[in-house]
Amino acid sequence: MEWLERQDFLMNTTVEQKIGGEDAAAAAQNAVNEISHLESLMSFFIDSGEVAQINRSAGRKAVCVGKDVMTVLGAAIQFAEISGGAFDITLAPVIDLWRRCGKQSVLPSSKEINTALSFCGYHNLQLDNENNTAFLRGDGCLIDLGAIGKGYAADCCIEIYKAMGIQSAFINLGGNVKTLGNNPDGRPWAIGIQHPDQRRGTFFGALDIQDQSVVTSGAYERYFETGGKKHHHIVDHKTGRPCDSDIKSVTVICQSSMQADCLSTAAFVLGLTDGMDLIGKTDNTEAVFYTENNEIYITRNLPGQFHLQKISRLDCYVCR
Ligand code: AMP
Ligand code: MG
């Protein structure tokens, strides 16, 4: 079988595709078109997009949106509820504050953080599924799909491959991986998990994956520094600050990449104990936690699927 590999920069991240079959080039191009389209709808920064329209209309009017954004917003509310608000797209005022401060390498004041927090809370986002509209209740409320959009896009790309008759494929949108069928050797795809403290491409373990998604959230991915202290990009809904997690990264494995995206962000905020509980109560979902103490904790169904890199010399515990 012929194999095609392609890399692009979309959704502010590197998108990597490996596709087998005669139509691979066309499938890869269709996936790129789909991701660009979703980005134009869902980006916080693209003024003509649906998300930007919802944000601009906050406190004033409901905005009519298409199926893609409606699906993502519905799931976002569901995962906010399941995670007790640890995953919450309405944290955007706080996320945006930290992002703006990060550009200038300064810290926001407590007053700025509290003001931004006062506009947050997923109850502020109202969906009308009959009329396909979304409304933010208060002027100053905002949404940011940074923790869910890439997962949704990965799911859409796999559907595109399938519709084109592709049987084997891999797509990675900046740490959101989803696979279809087997790899070029005819075996399940081996997906490496990035070591949180080592350079990109260094893996501490790998997962055998077939028709599943693997998504990692970690403090190491994006951050800025002030006075030698790192401030990463995942916000704690309780404090309005980068969460003080007891894990360095968490990787979630399940069928839906959108679900894995939401849950990995949520589990990172919740930390090892509560994050493990959240994964435990979600059907057909597994996880790998890498703690601050450099220990690995995996969910009970993973041992056959997860392989620790021998040279990593890490301890791995299975949670019962
Ligand atoms: P991820 O890499 O999927 O964990 O998503 C992180 C991105 O989601 C950040 O860069 C923010 O844009 C946004 N974000 C940060 N904290 C949260 C949170 N607690 N809930 C939802 N989205 C968040
Ligand atoms: Mg996420």
Descriptive notes:
The chain has 320 residues and is of the alpha+beta class. It folds into 2 domains: 44-136, T-fold (Orthogonal Bundle); 188-320, T-fold (Roll). It is 32% helix and 28% strand. It is built from 7 helices and 17 strands. The protein has helices at 24-42, 50-56, 67-82, 92-103, 110-117, 149-163, 257-280; strands at residues 3-10, 13-20, 63-64, 125-128, 133-136, 168-173, 176-180, 189-194, 203-209, 213-218, 223-226, 229-232, 247-254, 286-291, 295-298, 306-308, 315-318. The strands form 4 sheets. Strands 1-2-6-7-10-13-14-15-17 form a 9-stranded mixed beta sheet, covered by helices on one side. A hairpin with an 8-residue loop joins strand 8 and strand 9. Helix 3 (67-82) packs parallel to helix 7 (257-280) and helix 6 packs across helix 7. It is globular and about 55 Å long. The mean pLDDT is 95. Magnesium ion (MG) binds at residues 147, 217, 261, 264-265. Residues 147, 217, 261, 264-265 line the site of magnesium ion (MG).
- CATH architectural type of the largest domain: Roll
Q: How many structurally independent domains?
A: 2
Mean pLDDT score: 95
How many H/I helical runs? 7
Annotation, overall tally of beta strands: 17
Fill in the keyword field for this structure:
single chain, 320 residues, alpha+beta, T-fold, 2 domains, 9-stranded mixed β-sheet, 3-stranded antiparallel β-sheet, 7 helices, globular, binds adenosine monophosphate, binds magnesium ion
Give the helix/strand layout:
Blueprint lengths: L2 E8 L2 E8 L3 H19 L7 H7 L6 E2 L2 H16 L9 H12 L6 H8 L7 E4 L4 E4 L12 H15 L4 E6 L2 E5 L8 E6 L8 E7 L3 E6 L4 E4 L2 E4 L14 E8 L2 H24 L5 E6 L3 E4 L7 E3 L6 E4 L2
Parallel strand pairs: 15-17
Antiparallel strand pairs: 1-2, 2-6, 3-5, 4-5, 6-7, 7-10, 8-9, 9-16, 10-13, 11-12, 13-14, 14-15
Helix pairs in contact: 1-6, 3-7, 6-7
The structure holds adenosine monophosphate and magnesium ion.
The site of adenosine monophosphate has 19 residues, from α7.
